[in-house]
């Protein structure tokens, strides 16, 4: 009987099969660990900070970068880990407004222009907002803006109205239904002081008279006489909301970008974007010490059809062309930093922001 030598065929030249098997085992094991980590509560975001530049299209952002640094992609949020571009269309119009735009982010639903978080088109029922959902999860909530607090962007997060013009109804929803812990805006609409105090809110009119940032003293409504720096408001809000061990949801709007763009006031528009950039830089610095935080920066729509013809260096306004006094459907930027920031890679419309926030946060506070 001849001696037969068992021949082993290598699956990969130069490497023995047991080595290949070892590699497969290691890779599978690492994969399982990865899956396990992705599902543990440690991987979720606890705090959400959503910045909205009202009317802040991509050219607006570039203009501000050129003005401050003579360089595009140089603002704080442009240096976040992830960025993408998203569409802004409303249910009834390819060109949206702040009501339908903010409703898309707040509820994940496309509604008609002018509508605040109600099923229009549809049966008109209230859509639960991300702020309301977060409050149900035991998180604190806050809305900040540089325009009056009853304006469309903050309103879509904490009220339900068929028209953004119903400021009395919006305020009533704030006080009686959603009750955000922090409401900060600039004077505009009439709210009788007795109504504010009856609703149990501490009323503030100046940044110099802000109380100790302690939620045990109850909710705060600030209506500033003068437009404060968003960075200062962000700083106060974060030191106030961080007391909650369940985390928080905070929306911060730079509302005057849109106003300046409607008026083709390039200087005011750039200043308002730089104000937002400074606030986002502060939020990132804060979040580095409070790890379970996701920061998102985006816009509800573009305003003005802006185009930069020629940048002119630091501190000099770029030469620009404005195409309209209204809004456009130019897609806007979405930037993310922090816990679960990579989720924005799949976003392609404002409505996806709602899903990203839901997906990124722990459904059960621990
Ligand atoms: Zn506008």
Explain how this protein is built.
The strands form three sheets. The chain has a nine-stranded mixed beta sheet with strand order 2-13-8-1-7-3-4-6-5, with helices on both faces. A two-stranded antiparallel sheet has the order 9-12. Strands 10-11 form a two-stranded antiparallel ribbon. It has helices spanning 17-39, 58-69, 98-107, 130-136, 152-158, 167-178, 193-198, 230-241, 256-262, 266-289, 351-360; strands spanning 47-53, 82-86, 140-145, 182-186, 202-204, 220-224, 248-254, 293-299, 302-303, 307-310, 319-321, 327-328, 332-338. The chain is 36% helix and 17% strand. The N and C termini lie far apart (72 Å). It has eleven helices and 13 strands. The model is unreliable at 1-6 (pLDDT under 50). It has two domains: 12-43; 46-360, Alkaline Phosphatase, subunit A (3-Layer(aba) Sandwich). With 366 residues, the chain is an alpha/beta fold. Zinc ion (ZN) binds next to helix 9.
Strand/helix succession: HEHEHHEHHEHEEHEHHEEEEEEH
Based on DSSP secondary structure assignment, what is the total number of beta strands? 13
**Count of the domains:** 2
Helix fraction by DSSP (H/I, runs of at least 4): 25-40%
The small-molecule ligands in this entry are: zinc ion
Major sheet = 9 strands, mixed
Residue stretches low in confidence (pLDDT < 50, at least 5 long) are 1-6
CATH fold node name of the largest domain: Alkaline Phosphatase, subunit A
Globally, the shape reads globular
Structural class: alpha/beta
Shape-level CATH architecture of the largest domain:
3-Layer(aba) Sandwich
Total number of helices: 11
What distance separates the N and C termini? 72 Å
């Amino acid at each position: 009987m001849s001696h037969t030598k068992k021949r082993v065929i290598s699956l990969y030249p130069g490497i023995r099969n047991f080595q290949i098997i070892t590699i497969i085992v290691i890779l599978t094991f690492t994969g399982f660990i990865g899956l396990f980590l992705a599902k543990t509560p440690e991987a979720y975001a606890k705090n959400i900070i959503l910045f909205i530049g009202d009317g802040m299209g991509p050219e607006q952002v570039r203009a501000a970068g050129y003005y401050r640094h003579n360089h595009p992609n140089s603002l704080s949020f442009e240096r976040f880990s992830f960025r993408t571009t998203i569409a802004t269309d409303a249910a009834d119009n390819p060109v949206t407004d702040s009501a339908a735009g903010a409703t898309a982010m707040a509820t994940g639903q496309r509604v008609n222009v002018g509508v605040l978080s109600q099923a229009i088109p549809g049966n008109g029922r209230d859509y639960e907002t991300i702020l309301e959902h977060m409050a149900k999860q035991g998180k604190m909530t806050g809305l900040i803006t540089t325009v009056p607090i009853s304006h469309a962007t903050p309103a879509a997060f904490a009220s339900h109205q068929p028209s953004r013009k119903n400021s009395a109804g919006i305020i009533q929803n704030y006080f009686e239904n959603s009750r955000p812990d922090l409401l900060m805006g600039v004077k505009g609409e009439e709210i009788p002081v007795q109504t504010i105090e009856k609703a149990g809110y501490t009323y503030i009119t100046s940044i110099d008279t802000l109380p100790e940032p302690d939620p045990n003293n109850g909710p705060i409504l600030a209506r500033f006489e003068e437009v404060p720096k968003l960075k200062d408001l962000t700083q106060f809000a974060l030191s106030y909301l961080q007391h909650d061990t369940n985390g928080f949801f905070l929306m911060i709007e730079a509302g005057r970008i849109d106003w300046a763009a409607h008026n083709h006031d390039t200087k005011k528009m750039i200043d308002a974007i730089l104000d937002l950039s400074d606030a986002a830089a502060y939020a990132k610095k804060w979040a580095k010490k409070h790890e379970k935080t996701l920061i998102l920066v985006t816009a509800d729509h573009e305003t003005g059809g802006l185009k930069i013809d020629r940048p002119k260096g630091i501190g000099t306004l770029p030469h620009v062309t404005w195409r309209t006094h209204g809004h456009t459907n130019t897609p806007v930027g979405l930037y993310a930093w922090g816990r679960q920031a990579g989720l924005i890679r799949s976003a392609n419309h404002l409505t996806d922001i709602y899903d990203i926030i839901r997906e990124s946060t722990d459904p059960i506070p621990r």
